[in-house]
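Input sequence (98 aa), recorded before submission:
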Amino acid sequence: MASTPVLVARQLSKTVSAPEGELTLLEHIDLTVQGGDTLAITGPSGSGKSTLLGLLAGLDVPTGGDVRLAGEVVVAAEALRPAALGALEALPVQRLVL
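Predicted structure, token format:
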């Protein structure tokens, strides 16, 4: 029997403004972590590992997509965020144990 997803990222994207225009750091990332999974995020320097971890931890706001912890949205792009949640600071702090 498959375990329940603990952490799910759907269509996660992050772009920032740069002097030369919009810079895409991550584009349409999907990730599902099941309870008990061990995960390593690897890649060359500048590939977006720290950006991805910051988004998954709720330390940054994506420009697209959302992150769910135990089925609840913990961070989402402004366009996807429910109006009742308001600013990111209004989200409850949750502890993730994998």
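Checked by second reader. Residues 84-93 have pLDDT under 50 and may be disordered.
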